[in-house]
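Practice record 12: protein with 2-acetamido-2-deoxy-beta-D-glucopyranose.
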Amino acid sequence: MEGGQRDNVFLLLLFSLLSSGLSSLYFSVLDQCLKNPPKPQYDGGIVVNPELNSGREGWTPFGSTKIETISKKGNKYIAAFHRQQPFDSFSQQFYLQKEMLYTFSAWLQVSRGQAEIAAMFKAPPYFISAGSVTAQSGCWSMLKGGLYVNSSGPAELYFESHNTTVGILADSISLQPFTQEEWKSHQDLSIEKARKSKVKIQAIDGQGKPLANVTVNITQKKPDFPFGCAMNERILTNTDFQNWFTPRFKLTTFENEMKWYFTENSPGRENYTIPDAMLQFAKEHNISVRGHTVFWDDPRYNNDWVKSLPPNELSLVADRRMNSIMNRYSGHVVHWDVVNENLHFSFLESKLGENASAVYYLKAQQLDGKATLFLNEYNTIEEMGDEASTPTKYLEKIREIQSKGYQGSLGIGLEGHFRTPNLPYIRAAIDQLAIAGSPIWLTELDVESSPNQASFLMSNVTRFNLNLSFILG
Ligand SMILES: *[C@@H]1O[C@H](CO)[C@@H](O)[C@H](O)[C@H]1NC(C)=O
Ligand SMILES: *[C@@H]1O[C@H](CO)[C@@H](O)[C@H](O)[C@H]1NC(C)=O
Ligand SMILES: *[C@@H]1O[C@H](CO)[C@@H](O)[C@H](O)[C@H]1NC(C)=O
Ligand SMILES: *[C@@H]1O[C@H](CO)[C@@H](O)[C@H](O)[C@H]1NC(C)=O
Ligand SMILES: *[C@@H]1O[C@H](CO)[C@@H](O)[C@H](O)[C@H]1NC(C)=O
Ligand SMILES: *[C@@H]1O[C@H](CO)[C@@H](O)[C@H](O)[C@H]1NC(C)=O
Ligand SMILES: *[C@@H]1O[C@H](CO)[C@@H](O)[C@H](O)[C@H]1NC(C)=O
Ligand SMILES: *[C@@H]1O[C@H](CO)[C@@H](O)[C@H](O)[C@H]1NC(C)=O
Ligand SMILES: CC(=O)N[C@H]1CO[C@H](CO)[C@@H](O)[C@@H]1O
């Protein structure tokens, strides 16, 4: 700061919210199953008869099922029973416009037990998922999602559950279009609220007396926001890479160099030369490191010698692996991905029992009580159609691990390998994940090559994440 001539100034500084400080009305209801559904968001937006108060107006059967509207204790809703195909449900026609961003929500129930229900749009030649939720019987669960289309045209909303033995019930359905400009201005409002705070600066003289009318010049030396980038072993020898990397990033993940297949390529012969040197390099430049990853549940990324072991031997070498890497780097990394991609895969569970992840998270906590332990998954925010890792499944996995003996907190790692970023869906998915009250990090980030790649990356995803409280690591 330098003195000059102007009054004391109030400045807005950007700051980062590390753990999910986000709160909004939705979060309190998203995870609950309610006796009565709340009013539809945005009064239903462009949905005709969103609360089903006007009989079946706007709604038609989809597939081969019959639909009915039901009135129970003053609440009216729509239902499809006796379903034969996953898509047998009720539907409504819309005309969706390219370039618009659509938020979608609905309150859903099943006739018995519980089942996953997806909101689908038939927009020939595509079937587009707008999100899904695990619905229960006897109470209403909120499905919060969103979509965009890449060409304007008619689209038919319907609901889908692969479990055809349950009836689907729906109420308070909402589809609200936003223009890109509206979306950006909403982002800006969130930025004002969530990412800025007022700072009072007082310029004083040598005796501590306030100075009138000074100009204060503030220069940012380094970002406080934990904005990071992966590095690989080439950083050790390539000075251009070093010079580009070090002033920009506060955080890093090693691409492969901490992975089990890398550090113990043949049984018992560990070699940490490269990750040690990379850690040292990061330390010298004040760059924090995420520990990635103790284990990887995808069998393809385990060495053949590991895969060939019988369970009792695998259990021994897995313990040895965990002790080895965690004792070596505990205190030197800020996070650990413990069992990478355990929503999509179950290599350890298949060999060691269904509580394997829980067991290793518990052990990890004992080995490093300071670093945050993370799950790390793909397609939770990238692909609406991947049922293995929906936000609901992610939350269920966290609860499952916690119910099997690991009591600590779990960070939510989102890999962010995008084809075309679907902003309304990304937002809805992250809102839903925020229920867990855990830190949410975008741990990896890339956008598939296309003419819009740079713009998707910079103006859509990075802006989205930088300006809300989520993080690139
Ligand atoms: C379908 O859902 C019912 C109710 O939750 C459950 O009892 C049944 O096992 C499910 N069927 C399948 C194939 O998942
Ligand atoms: C258009 O959208 C559909 C449905 O989401 C998708 O499958 C397709 O790849 C998209 N096409 C282009 C050119 O982005
Ligand atoms: C503050 O400085 C500006 C120009 O730098 C001058 O016009 C103004 O009169 C000053 N105000 C006071 C209260 O000194
Ligand atoms: C503020 O300080 C920086 C760094 O000393 C300098 O480059 C810049 O020109 C200054 N800006 C003003 C408006 O004085
Ligand atoms: C460990 O790895 C380094 C870097 O690849 C290599 O130079 C060294 O020879 C290895 N050590 C052993 C004992 O294999
Ligand atoms: C790293 O941080 C320390 C303590 O804040 C500081 O003294 C040092 O200059 C920093 N080093 C680099 C390379 O930024
Ligand atoms: C987890 O599995 C192990 C091995 O099968 C077993 O010893 C342990 O009791 C299980 N723990 C829980 C909480 O189920
Ligand atoms: C996202 O990127 C697309 C493609 O460049 C651009 O047209 C659009 O305005 C961006 N949307 C937002 C909300 O940043
Ligand atoms: C990366 C990015 O888009 N940052 C934006 C965050 O919000 C502020 C205030 O609206 C913009 O000035 C930044 O460009």
